[in-house]
Structures are given as structure tokens and as C-alpha cells.
Amino acid sequence: MTDVQSEVTAFLARLDERNATRGAEPTWIAARRQAGAARFEALGFPTRRDEAWKYTDVRAIARGDFALTDSADFSPPSAAALTLPLEAHRLTFVDGVFSAALSDLGELPRGVAVLPLSQALAENHEAVGGPLGRLTGVEFSPFSALNTAFMEEGAVVRLAPGSVVEKPILLQFLSRANGKPVMSHPRILVEAGSRSQATLIEHHVGESEAANFTNLVAELMLDRGAILTHYKLQEAALGDLHVASIHVEQGRDSRYTSFNLNLGGSLVRNDLIGELNGEGAEANFYGLFYGQGRQHIDNHTLANHNAPRTFSNENYKGILDDRARGVFNGKVVVKRDSQKIEGFQSNANLLLSDRAEIDAKPELEIYADDVKCSHGTTTGQLDEEAVYALRTRGIDEQTARGLLTLAFAGEVMELVDLDAISERVELAVAGKLPERFNLAGLVEASMALHDE
Amino acid sequence: MASQEMEQLVRREYKEGFVTDIESDTVPPGLDESVIAFISNKKGEPEWMLEWRLKAYHQWLKMTPPSWAHLEYPPIDYQAISYYSAPKRPEDRPQSLDEVDPKLLETYEKLGIPLHERAALAGVAVDAVFDSVSVTTTFKEKLHEAGVIFCSISEAIRDYPELIKQYLGTVVPQADNYFAALNSAVFTDGSFVFVPKGVTCPMELSTYFRINAANTGQFERTLIICEEGAQVSYLEGCTAPMRDENQLHAAVVELVALDDAYIKYSTVQNWYPGDEDGKGGIYNFVTKRGDCRGDRSRISWTQVETGSAITWKYPSCVLRGKDSIGEFYSVAVTNGRQQADTGTKMIHIGEGTRSYIVSKGISAGRSNQSYRGLVKIGPRAKGARNFTQCDSLLIGDQCGAHTFPYQEIGNSTATIEHEATTSKIGEDQLFYCQSRGISEEDAVSMIVNGFCKDVFQELPMEFAVEAEALLNVTLEGAVG
Fold it and tell me: Is the Cβ pair B417, A378 closer than 8 Å?
């Protein structure tokens, strides 16, 4: 017990140091900080005795010693190499600190605001105080409490009713290889007005030696008829620790599509919660996680059908190699009197190594009778007959396995509209199958064969 | 759509509700070491058994009741329960059916189980349990010829201490969980089956449980052992009289299958579910586990759960032996304010182990039902295979159906499939039947029986008939 206490105290001491150097703040922020700290102190870090953390051990975070940083220095050429090659309205954060130099918002359409949280607070803190924390309170988890206690920076996106953002909005989070690991607690706040439309990309990437702790909270509010596509591409360094809580609130006839693509991080936990509050609201949760080495990737999703005639559709694919461990926990809840609901859930996992492990728990909690809900989960290995079929056609075994692995991920990846992202993922998955799969090589080989 | 007759059928009173008036030899409510000593003494147990019970009791004192299940019930006062109740005259037990207390036989008559007929015609040996003490055991001779031991656990403790010492508590340890620990401390009766090497039990074995005497929890302990190549099919069925106080039932069932053995365990459970408001009714907190210890062994659980106010039950298989097989077939029906949290655990340890799970849940009225299952594949379970299907059928808009399947897979050569659906009886299906002159009620019954078919066909013949009838009675009129 004393152990747990000292872990909590270390983080709170860090907070006290920070508070001492911080200037005057609006009272509501100070109050929430306090509430977050108090809640975190009461809860402590979750242990495996907590049902929601049964398969995920967060001691790597709890026992870590993380500093806070104010520097956003990052070499521009290496940042450019990491940035997704697409035209976008871009905000860049380095270890959680906003970097104006690496940001490029370009020209935003009328009625659309994309700005760092610090700036939004400076301009009109009251406009932020209302929505911030409305979906993700300090009660949600020890990590959301911790985030609330530390929150300083992040992104605020406001879409006026009827506005359409053609180019994606890219929020780029860079992680540096620091002498001492640092932590950051970014907030993302999206208010999508009625019938507005946008694509949001959350990109986590960094230097390969980085070993920082990111504890993100995102709140996305979709008003009537709003359409938001949210890509989360998490390809942080293999030493990074990443925890994210994403809450989505959906009004009538709105549509939210999430692509939760996780390739990096040593310990990753994502909570994605959709509140379908208005009739006709639709939520699509697509996910892909690829683990290797000793990576641990945990995805929790929850679709709350709070209104009749709401739809949710979920498809998560997991690929695990070496000693990686994956967790999938999907839940569909249908409230009483939420009739005419459709909720589908599918999770397929591929184990490439004998020591890889997957813990899957697809849940349904249903209190209405006129519903169509189903879930399916499979776990298996590559089909040896398919491997054989490819080999009889002159493809070597390694390539055949690589191809089939990519094909397995394909079901989710083919829904990705942005080539820059799907290429990054496919290349990463292919690249992470060393010597096994090389798309370019394969194309060359087949062309050579054709020429002959 | 719900017509008035249906309303009436829903309100139908529990048919099996009556109390047999037999003077019980009951200890005052409460639990301490002296009560355990009393039970042990009453059963004429050896010293080591009392020690075993006390060890469990001390473990139990340190434990807290589980709270993770999707159930709601007020805390149970374990000191308000009487832990022993036996029909009078335990010393001069009846030697044959003729000597059995006629009131008891009457009770069975009311339940529609004419013992003589059943025993003679169906060829079933019945070890009837009436409030904790076995009163009659039939077909002992025939079983004896085959070398099969089938008796109450108390007799087994006296007559076969070596077997008990070797196997009791090896599948469900004393401190396995709160209710199992309680059971280990205070169990009063249950069945013991031992099928020796190479023997196929010549008949299906059956025990009828019946809870009687107010305020008495019934703590059954069943142990079934199948040696190499042996086979047995065991039937368990129960009904209980109507009563207003919640009765606790915390049974433990242990199955041990050695090489090539096959145990089939079937249950039909129709205990009193409580009245319309959920008052009364049995709390059924059961620990059932089978251990496929031998290679190529097979354990199959089949259950039809229609009764009890609360069901907390997860018949499980530990698949230790190479190529062993675990099966679980379940139909659970809840109506009124019943709550059920049930499912199975399949623990794959050995190579080439296979498990198959089919769970059908039907919720009606204001009931809540959860499927909670675990499929765990250990690192050494090469080529393990699991298929799980759990379907829920909702009848009415006030009920709930939930699924909590856990999968822990630590072996890449394993193949795991899980499917679940939740739906209601389609209006088009009903219309289709009705347009062919089938009444709404018959149509519902047809559809529901079709929904449960995969499970019913696993039941032994006489149970299957009973199960279908039970299902129809439980659900009659619940359609809207």
C-alpha cells in the first residue's frame, strides 16, 4: 500500500512544483486542477484488480519519474520527415508543448477555428470552461483525473454550423528522446456545429529513442447532423507510454467515424467512448493494432445507445508478434426504451508468435427488446493452406506470410480514405515484418517476371 | 399484442409450491465451529473430515462475497441461516421404497415423479435427496455388479475414505471462492459416483434435489469420478416449494475424468423464482467444475435453468489432458424479476484440447440475464480449439440481456471463435406461423424451442421432454 501511496505522491509533488511556478489562472481552472488532484490522490493508479485494467499493468507509468517541459525545440528537418505528407491545417506539439514554428494552419474556412488550448484560454477562457471537461470528468479514470490536474496545452477546434473543412485538420504530437523522460497531458476539444463536416487527424510520432508518457484526453461534441472523421495514428517510439481517453457525444443524425490505428508505444491504452444521444446518430469504430517485441496495446471501446434508432458498427483487427500482448474490450450498451437499435461489433486477432497473447472481451448490455446486436471475435493464425497456395505460385514463404498478414489488416485499412495514412500503416506493418514482406520488391519481381 | 389470457398466464402461480410437513431435526440459525462439529458428528464423520471442514470455515471467514456479477440482491446474513436439517429418524433409514415415509413419496407424486415407475420404467437409479439426507437409493445392486459406486457423499466418507481423501476438493479447492468455502465447511449431503476403469455405467444416474424446511440453506456436495475409459451420464433436477424467505443454495459439484473417460452432467433447475415482485425465491450460488485430468477425456455440461430468483453459476472444464474435450450447453430462461449471471469457463492447458460452448438466454418480463464466460488458452495448449456461440432472445421491453465473454489467448496455434447475437422474436416469424393457423402462443413456443434446439438435443430423453415443458410453462404469456 505504501508503495502505491509513494507513486501517487511523486506525481502530486510534480504538480505542486508546477503550480508554484504557474502564473495566475482563472478560478475555474484552479478549482478543476484541485478536483483532479484530489480525485487522483483518492483513486491512485489502477491495478489489475480493477476490472477495467484487468489485463493492463500500468506500473511502468506509476513507477516512472517524469519531468515536465516548457521547451518545444525539435529539429525542423527531422520534424518534416515525421510529418504526414498531406495538405492539412496543422498544429504541432512537442512533448505536449505547442510549437508555432512547426505548425502551419494555412487558410481556414470561415467559421472554423483551430487553435492551441493556451491561446483559446488567453482569448476567452469562459468559452473554453463550458465544454471542457463536460464529457470527460475527473471521475472517469485516474488518468483523466491526472490529466485534469496537469492540463495546460492541447487543441481546440470549433466548427460553425454548416461549415465544411475540406483539408484535414492535423494535430501532430511529437515525442523527443529526452535525457530524462517527460510527461504531457494534452487536451483535445472539438465542437462541431450542426451539419458541419471535418476530418481530424491525431498523429503521435517521435524520435525512435523517445520514452515519454503521454496522457491525452479528447472530447468531441457533434451537434445535429455533424460529420466528423477522426483518424488516430499512433506510431510513437517503442519506448513511449501512451494513455488516451476519447469521449464523443453525438446529436441527432450525426456521424462519427473513428480510425484508431496503433503501431507504436511500449504500453498503450485507449478508451473510446461514444454517447449516441440523438435519434439517427451513427458511430463507426474501426481499429488496428500491431504489436511486436514486448509491446502492450489495450483498446477499450464503449458505445452507449442512449436514444432510439441509433447505430454503431465496430471492427477491430489485432496483429501480435513476438511477446506482444493485445487487449480488446468492446462494449455495446442499449438503454431502456432505446428501441430500433443496431449495434455490431467484430474483433479479429492474428497471433504470429507462440508467445504473443490476446485478451478479448466483447460485451453486450441490452435493456431493450427491439434491437439487432451481435458481436463476433476470432483469434487464430495464418491459414497454412493459404500460405501453401501462394507458395505453389512461386512466392516464398516469408512473402506469403507477409502478404496474408497485410490482407488481414486490409479489411480495416481499405476504409481509410487518406492515402498518406494507409501507406504509413501498411509500410509500417510491412516494415515490421523484416525480410518477410517488401511491397516494392514484390512489384519489381512481378514486373521482371512479366518482362521475361 | 399481449392478449389478456397471456397476462393471466404470466400471473400464474408457481405450480410446485407446497410445503411438506415433516418434523425436521434442525440446528438453530448461525454458523460457528460448534455447528460444523454438530454436522460432522451427525453424519458420523471421521476426525479428518471435521478438520477439513474447519479448514474451509477458517478460509471462509477471511473471504468476502463476490460483487462482480451483474446481480442485485441485499446482503445475506449468514448467521440467520440454519445449516442443518434432516428428516426425522436418520438412524433407521428406510431400506426400500416401501419403508419410505409416505409423505415424502406424496411429495414426489405431486412433482410428477412417481419414484417406483420412474425407477422401474425408465431404468434410472434414483438417489433421492430430501433436505440433506438421502432417504432412498435404488438399483444399488445392479450398479454394484458393474462395480459402480453410487451413494450419498456422507456414506462415501464413511465407506470409501480413501477415495474421498484422494479426490474431494481437488477440483474445487476449499478456498476456491466464497460460496465454495462455505459449502466445504457445512455441506450436508450430495451424491458420490465412482465408475471404475473401463466400465460404462449401465444406467443413467439421477438425483432429485428438493429444498424443504424454512430457513434452511441446502449445501450439496457432489463428486463424480470416472477412471480410465469409464463413462457415466448423470442427471440432476430440482424443484422447491413456495416460500417467502430467500433460501440460499450453495452447492459444489466436482467431476474428475481420467484417460479416455467421459462424464455427461445434465441439470434441469426449476427452483422457486420468487413472486411477481421478486419476493422470495431461491438464491442459487453454485460452483461446478470438471477436471479433464486424463488424455482424451471428455466432460459435457448441459443445463436448463428456468428457476431461482438469482442464479450464479459457471460450470467449468479444466482441460488438462492431451486432446481432452469440454462442452457446455445451456438454456437459461428468466421471467418476472429473476436474475441470472451464468456461463462457463474453459481452461485449456493440454495440447490439442477442444471446447464447445452453446449458450441460449431468454429474458422476459423484468428479468436480467448475463452470459459470463472465459476461454483461456495456456501457452502449452498447442492447437487448442474453441467455438462459442451465445444468443439472447428478448421478450418484452423491460428485460435485459448481457454478454461478458472473456478470452485470454496465449498461444498462436489456438483457434478461437466467438459469436453472439441478441434479438427478439420477429414479428414476421410470428405472422408467418399465425397465417398458417398456429396460435400466437404455440408459435412463440415453437420459435423458442427452435432457438434452444441445439441444447435440448444434448439432453437425455426424459429430461428433454421435461425441459421443453418447463420452458413453455415459464414463458407462457410473456410475449408482447
Answer: yes
* CB-based contact A215:A243 (threshold 8 Å): yes
Q: How far apart are CA B262 and CA A253, in angstroms?
A: 56
| Tens-digit pLDDT profile for residues B27-80 | 778 888 888 988 888 888 899 999 999 999 999 999 998 888 888 888 888 888
Question: Grid coordinates standing for B215?
Answer: 430457513
Instruction: Looking at the complex, report in whole angstroms how far the Cα of residue A405 sits from the nearest Cα belonging to chain B.
Output: 14
Reduce the secondary structure of chain B to three states and give it as a string.
CCCHHHHHHHHCCCCCCCCCCCCECCCCCCCCHHHHHHHHHHCCCCHHHHHHHHHHHHHHHCCCCCCCCCCCCCCCCHHHCECCCCECCCCCCCCCHHHCCHHHHHHHHHCCCCHHHHHHHHCCEEEEEECCEEEEECCHHHHHHHCCEEEEHHHHHHHCHHHHHHHCCCCCCCCCCHHHHHHHHHCCECEEEEECCCCECCCCEEEEEECCCCCECECEEEEEEECCCCEEEEEEEEECCCCCCCEEECCEEEEEECCCCEEEEEEEEECCCCCCCCCCCEEEEEEEEEEECCCCCEEEEEEEECCCCEEEECCEEEECCCCCEEEEEEEEEECCCCEEEECCEEEECCCCCEEEEEEEEEEECCCEEEEEEEEEECCCCCCCEEEEEEEEEEECCCCEEEEEEEEEECCCCCEEEEEEEEEECCHHHHHHHHCCCCCHHHHHHHHHHHHCHHHHCCCCHHHHHHHHHHHHHHHCCCCC
The DSSP letter of residue A188 is E
Q: At what angle do helices B47-61 and B178-186 cross, to 10 degrees?
A: 150
DSSP per residue, A312-342: EEEEEEEEE-TT-EEEEEEEEEE-TT--SEE
Which residues of chain A are within 8 Å of residue B410 when distances are taken between CB atoms?
A: 355, 357
Q: How far apart are CA B297 and CA B319, in angstroms?
A: 9
> Is there a contact between B14 and B273 (Cβ–Cβ < 8 Å)?
yes
Q: What is the mean pLDDT of each run of 10 residues along chain B (480 residues)?
A: 48 50 65 88 88 94 88 86 62 47 51 44 42 48 84 88 94 92 89 93 70 55 94 77 64 95 90 74 90 96 88 94 95 89 94 95 89 92 92 86 90 88 83 90 85 85 72 62
Give the angle subtended at the CA of A336 by the CAs of A335 and A341, to the nearest 5°: 60
Q: Which helix (H) or strand (E) holds A200?
A: strand A197-206
Q: Does A50 touch chain B (CB under 8 A)?
A: no
In the A/B pair of chains, how many CB contacts fall below 8 A?
115
Mean pLDDT, chain A, as a whole number?
Answer: 91
Q: Which residues of B touch A362 (CB under 8 A)?
A: 403, 405, 418, 420
Put simply, whether the predicted model's pTM sits higher than 0.80 gets the answer: yes
A19 — contact with chain B (CB < 8 Å)? no
Sign of CA dihedral A40, A44, A46, A50: negative
Domain ranges across chain A: 2-278, 382-452
Are the C-beta atoms of A214 and A243 separated by less than 8 Å?
yes
The count of C-alpha atoms lying within 13 angstroms of the C-alpha of A130, restricted to the half-sphere facing its C-beta, is 6
The full length of chain A comes to 452
Give the integer Cα–Cα distance in Å for A443 and B463: 63
In whole angstroms, what is the distance from residue B149 CA to residue A2 CA? 55
Quote the cell numbers at residue A7.
507513486
Q: Which residues of A touch B68 (CB under 8 A)?
A: 51
In the DSSP assignment, the letter for residue A433 is S
Contact at CB, A337 and B396, closer than 8 angstroms: no
Contact B400 A367 (CB under 8 A): yes
Query: Which DSSP symbol is given to A168?
Result: P
What span, in angstroms and rounded, lies between the C-alpha atoms of B193 and B169?
A: 15
ipTM for the whole complex: 0.77
